[in-house]
């Protein structure tokens, strides 16, 4: 059974004598329902006619059709974005290549300078810096002394925390290669 606005307008309810419905409220509600149904039927007919005439499909409820770009504009924006992305990518590659080339040139300059220094005859004077081996041994000794000092401080700190009055035990550092060489030289 198809319901029409006219059916709603003409619907009659039986009246009860005791505790029945208020006839005015019922009529007011029926009037509102009939108006809503009538508006929906008109909208449905309009959209059906529009669809049959080949017009664009209607948008869903709540969709703002005016804000959506038309397909050609959308494609144009996508193409512009692609072109911009390509341009930025090309610029980044060019800058990266320039940085790599600069770094290679700098590395070559440093290598050339080092080779030039290495090819100069070495003079043995007392004003020259110590040999690399001597510098490495000196660094190792200083580093070892620093570690021993730090170990002593940590041990002392832990002893204070435990309320012990004992002196911290500090082990003597292990002998370095230079110390062993010196010991062997003095024994001979």
What structural category do the secondary elements indicate? mainly alpha
Mean pLDDT: 75
Low-confidence stretches: 164-168
Count the DSSP helices: 5
Terminus-to-terminus distance = 124 Å
Share in helix: 55-70%
Tally of discrete structural domains? 3
Instruction: Assess the beta-strand content as a share of residues.
Output: under 5%
Computed Rg: 48 Å
Specify the overall morphology.
elongated
Query: What would you call the quaternary organization?
Result: single chain
**H and E string:** HHHHH
Major sheet attributes: none
Number of strands: 0
Kindly describe this structure.
The chain is mainly alpha-helical and 188 residues long. It has 3 domains: 52 residues, no CATH class; 46 residues; 45 residues. The protein contains 5 helices and no strands.
Indicate the topology:
Layout: H1 5-10, H2 23-52, H3 71-119, H4 132-161, H5 177-187
Task: Put the structure in a nutshell.
The protein has 188 residues and is mainly alpha-helical. It is built from five helices and no strands.
């Amino acid at each position: 059974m198809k319901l029409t606005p006219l059916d709603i307008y003409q619907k009659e309810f039986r009246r009860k004598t005791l505790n029945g419905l208020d006839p005015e409220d019922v009529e007011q509600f029926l009037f509102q329902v009939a108006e809503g149904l009538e508006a929906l039927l008109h909208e449905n007919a309009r959209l059906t006619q529009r669809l049959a005439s080949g017009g664009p499909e209607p948008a869903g409820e709540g969709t703002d059709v005016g804000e959506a770009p038309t397909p050609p504009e959308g494609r144009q924006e996508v193409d512009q974005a692609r072109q911009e992305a390509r341009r930025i990518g090309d610029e980044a590659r060019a800058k990266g290549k320039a940085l790599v080339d600069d770094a290679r040139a700098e590395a070559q300059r440093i290598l050339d300078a080092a080779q030039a220094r290495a090819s100069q005859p070495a003079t043995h004077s007392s004003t020259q810096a110590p040999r690399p081996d001597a510098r490495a041994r000196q660094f190792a000794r200083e580093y070892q002394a620093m570690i021993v000092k730090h170990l002593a401080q940590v041990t002392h700190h832990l002893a204070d925390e435990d309320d012990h009055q004992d002196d911290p035990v500090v082990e003597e550092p292990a002998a370095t290669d230079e110390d062993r060489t010196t010991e062997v030289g003095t024994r001979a």
